[in-house]
Amino acid sequence: MPVLWIVLIILALAVVGYIMGRQRALASAGGDSRKLHSLPSYYGSSVAIFTVVFSLLVLVCWLIIQPIVINNSVASTIPDTAIPEASSLGLVMSDVRRVANGLDLAVAGGAIPANEVSEISTEDTDLRGLLASVGVALGSDVSEPVLDAAQSYRNLSKTGNILMTVVVLAIAVGGFIFAFLRSHKDFRARNVVETSIRYLLILAASIAILTTIGIVLSLIFNTIDFFTLYPASDFFFGTTWSPSFGGGSQLGIIPLLWGTMYISIIALAVAVPIGLFAAVYLSEYASPKMRSFAKPLIEVLAGIPTIVYGLFALLTVGPLLLQVFGPNGTGWMGAASSVMTAGLVMGIMLIPFVSSLSDDIINAVPQAMRDGALGLGATKSETVKQVVLPAALPGIVGAILLAASRAIGETMIVVLGAGAAARLSLNPFEAMTTVTAKIVSQLTGDADFSSPEALVAFSLGMTLFVITLALNVLALYIVRKYREQYE
Amino acid sequence: MNMTEMPTTAQNVKNMPQNTKISARDVQVYYGENHAIKDVNVEIEDRTVTAFIGPSGCGKSTFLRCLNRMNDTIDVCRVEGTIALDGEDIYDKKVDPVQLRAKVGMVFQKPNPFPKSIYDNIAYGPRIHGLAKNKAELDEIVEKSLRRGAIWDEVKDRLQAPGTGLSGGQQQRLCIARAVATEPEVLLMDEPCSALDPIATDQVEDLIDELRNQYSVVIVTHSMQQAARVSQKTAFFHLGNLVEYGETDQIFTNPKDPRTESYISGRIG
Q1: Domains identified in chain B and CATH numbers
Q2: Is B42 left (phi over 0), alpha (psi -120 to 50) or beta?
């Protein structure tokens, strides 16, 4: 039975369970809902929960585990002689899966009668041509062991699916009956429902955390792989970045880190003053009308995709800078791509981050602070400078560090605006590149995934991760420290 | 109740016109459509503590905030009539509200020390008004103000500690010291003791009594005992009207208006 049908049956069962559980509980109280421990809907929900949760849990686990188990048992039946030269068991197994899948499609599409499919042999059928006709393309002709394996793969999957349907539906019905029989007026259905909601919330939180852990682990393992192929000291202290896929690459991170830092600093130098001044204007000086009009407009900047900013850098800002600082101007700039181009555009991108967050934070400063200063005869600007901004400082620093994390992780603007040359230079009008841009270029080539040139992307990613993590920790530390002092 | 004896305000003006610090004439305040203060006429005397009493929402705080134009910071608030400080209309276009507020200081209901050190809290006003020529003079002003705020002994060893770290009563005395540091001529206090315990209240009241030697103090209070203890003059507000204004003793022992009598005897409010 298809998985969709199983899920639909379970859900239908849950709806029926809800109605029946509710009615049974009400009946046990003689139709007077005041005699129930919980509201009637809780009894219904508890039946629905018992029907759905365990059966779906088993279904999901089964769907994950079954292919792995079948794969392993089929793989063990394939003789070593069936694995061609320069191939591997994994590649043969993917052929097996494809043939099995193709046979299923062929049966479903009517290309092979269902009762003949198990008698097919490689000798009297052009299996490759047959499968190609139902949309499954194979790299080579199907060999006898592969076909045998595919047949047993199909059989095992079929048995597994039947078993899964039976087990899952049995669990759903079992849960239904168990919870239905419990629906009595003294049963604490509300507590059961609320406990399951708590577990749902815990599940949601742990998915986010587990994903993070998974990403970090995959970064760490690949980074370790990389360091077995390439010395860590050369990576961290090397000042040359020149990957060559033929071997003999120099993969020093320093030029990339320098580019990242340089561009981020320019971006922050643009975004922090503009964003902060905009925030002060919006929160302290603008009339409510102006504010309700201008704030969403500024926030529109945050909604522009970064690739559009990249185009803006490439097509507008770069050529404009080139006119002023290029060969026909001051002569500092060789091409439109430069640190300055990317930094300026990235700064514009970061303005809403700084201004919107700072505006909220400045607004959160109690009116009593402003009254206190104004009541002493301070002007508006003295109040803002000496009372409101210091009080809002921890939050503002947090906003700035958040913007810095964004700047360090930004990719598209850099790819399009800053150039691709890894260079250690002080001239902001020269092309440089960043860690993120190099991760892109290392992984988008035809590189072998086990070569240091490709694996370096993971250690670059790991380095970036550590840097942004450190920035976030620093931001939290600063915010906490000042908050103690101010509140 | 003899209605012919009602116009106490006019009598007071006649009695001591030379001593009037603030004089309000036909003051109306509107919050948008809401007419919050109606036809208030009052003469506030120099070197006197004047108490504004009345039930919640009667407009006493609103009127207090008119006296140093703090209502300017509220967009929908509109003030009509004239309020004169030393004979000059404070709502005149020539008057800078910032300079006015330096002369008419204010202490708020909730202590609101700035997120700065105790020293910087006090030095804030003198600094922005340029009252001190050098550091030594500023130190002197800070010490003097803290002494007058009756808090010097408690904080003299930790002037660099944050003002927000003090207790509620200490914070309020710090705010009073901060207001005093700018050498105002009038000090407005909006329920300065409502967040304080009885001991801190007692200290603040002693302080108010001392401040009377130099300033005109106007205090809004919900506590009639407090008004009776600290003030020489009392004004009773009800529903946006100034019902009765006179000597504190007279208001509390022999009120002329039946509404005042009802309020102070606890029948309304």
Answers
A1: 3-110+186-264 (3.40.50.300)
A2: beta
